[in-house]
Amino acid sequence: MRHIAAALLAATLASTTACSAGGDAGGTNARRPAITASPSKTAYTKGDCTALLEKNFIDDNLHDASREEECRNLSRAEYQDSVKTVLLRHADEVRAKARDQVKYGEIWDALGKQTQESTCDLLYDQGPLDVGNALKPVVDDPTIDTEKMAEYFYMEKC
Domain coordinates of the chain in residue numbers? Predict the structure, then answer.
């Protein structure tokens, strides 16, 4: 089927070029027809949609992908099932991140307004990575990732 389509396209191009060239085929007056790509005819499956959602989750690109090419042909129930599959695969990760953010929020709230402002200024000046590294020796709780905490402050609080 592809060979037939390619042959038809080549024949069409050859005849169009010859006709529009006005007897000067390949010459300086020859006009070439515009070639446009045909829309994709790929039949995506629920597995393709789940793979896209998985990639998006890993890339921290969380959004409604129901209208993206890989997911648009699924029913609402199938799309929701794909989302559920990805979230269940990462349930422990999601819970840990939520736990950490609660902890970071409690630490932020305990800082006081003036210290919060100073922290934001420092984050703007030095960036979350440097501030997080500087906090390592100061924070005495080994369960706290100071780099992630500084990034959380920077992205969510400042």
Answer: 1-38, 46-89, 93-157
